[in-house]
Amino acid sequence: MTIGSEAVKRLQGTDGIRRPVALASDPRVKGLTPQRAFLGKGILTEEFFELYAYAYVSSLGSPGEVVIGWDPRDPAGHFTGAAVRGIRKAGATAVVVGIFPTPGVALYHIWRGSMCALMITASHNFRDQNGIKIFRGPHALKLFPEEDRELTARVLSLDYARDVKPLAERGRRIEARDEAREVFLKFHLDPRNSWLKPGENLGDFPLVIDAANGAMSGLAFEVFRRLHGGPVTELNSDTGSGDVNRKSGVADLEGVQEIARGELRFAEHAAVQALFEKGGKAAVFDADGDRFYRLDHDRESDRILVLSGDETAYHQARFLSPRPPSPLYVNTVESDLNAARAAQELGYEPVLTGVGDKWVLKQAAENPGRYGIGSEETGHNISRGYVTTRAGRDLEVFLGNGLKSALNTFVATRGLKAQEAARPFPRGFKKTFYVYYTRKDLLRQGGEVFRGVEDLIRRECALGEVVVEPRPEEPDMLYLAVMGADGRQRAGIFVRNSGTEEKTGVNVRGTLEDSAELVRVGEEAILHVARAMKDRGHPMARAEQAILEALRAGPRAADAMPVPEGVHRERLLEELANKEKVIRACAAGYELTPLGARMLEAWA
Questions:
Q1: What is the percent of the chain with per-residue pLDDT over 90, rounded to a whole number?
Q2: 0.90 exceeded by the pTM?
Q3: Average pLDDT along the chain
Q4: For labelling alongside 202, which of 85, 175, 246, 412 has CA 20 to 30 A away?
Q5: Residue 183 in domain
Q6: Which domain holds residue 274?
Q7: What SS3 state is found at 205?
């Protein structure tokens, strides 16, 4: 199957499949095959979930057990039910844990010794989207690009109407949520995993849990209720509405370092408002529970301080201390450059990977004896854990687990003031510029856009020699290291497509002293990307242009924006205001930002 003149080699992004969803009967996709709905319209149907699950499970050979769980964004069960059907049509037994966190699905897969595990989720994305993550093998690794390509070829070779739809559901279905829940709770209450000594607790401060109306609802509360010595309040724990990540969770906090009282952007973020009202700390998750950010109310400044994956990983590394000698501190190119430098001062050996926690997991799997801590600044932290399997084997496990990271961070920061916890190392500068609704296929190694943005950054950057550093994990990412006069890396600038959303980003990382120059270069680069890659035929892109044009005349209320029927208004405004930052909230509703005015010029 092709897009234009190019054969499709890989359907997956950074972490599996993720797209807006619609039923196959929807007028936008009616009559299309599941593959054509995905490739031509960018929509996942229930038929695609069934096809994809069938394609993967049937490729594994002898039918066995497949653990499957999901976050709550599909309350009607259209897409989760289809995935279960795909497993059973492949002849495997679907071990169903229902609404359950991603780390819980992976852990239960390891504990049970199943063939693989499927998690139906779009993680931190809006509820209008869904997706599939796959865990394979005894260590619950995710699929790597070559395996993605093999699965893609199999999915594209199947005819849903002929090869999948008429099949009987030969495999059994086992309901296993209660057992999986006990395994998950026991894992986190184990002192080896919580890092609490018997009889200890986390402290007596007020603790807020923001479950993002997601799969961690109830479970995180139960663990903290048992291990915390102070009051615990759970917010955003409604799993019945499907309203995941809305004005809650980690996605709203990406790129934010502190929040002042009265900020309009967070006026409806319940965890933020609870901390301003009562003080204390918050553990904030995403819909599937594999990411964690921490919020601390600083009484001295009356601000909320945000700890991203960089800060939480550093605290955990410091608490563990460097053992064995020179253990690995693994983080991705998205991280603050100073995080790795600070870990090196603790005695760790820094390892830089491409974006995606699977690359951190790969380092853990390949170097179990030397692995120390791994992280993504977006909130994935991966540390060593321990589980006794159903068969009685004691295993070390490495999982992207927001709840374990939260427990370990609170243990590692006991006794620290809010400012000390939020600023454990001298922060560098990091900023990401996004352009949404892009033709991501245009950013290819050696292609016109790839070469054009590289040339622009070389021309614009005055900080030092610019050196291309290819990333084999992600060859279509342009990574440029800016070298200082001392021969050490001074800054990093990289351009990449999101593997989980309809966007392309320009990321700048460096020192605070270089921040103004990095912002200038970043803005020029993202405007170039917008001109070259914006998909002007995309309904969301057309709506964006109409909004920017309207705001050129002055601020407007949100409900007065020219958003056509069929466009997800709330997602559009969220992406334009808090991600692209081309508009911003104001007393009257929204207004154009200076970057938005320049972005509008780029449309011309």
A1: 90
A2: yes
A3: 94
A4: 246
A5: no
A6: 190-426
A7: coil
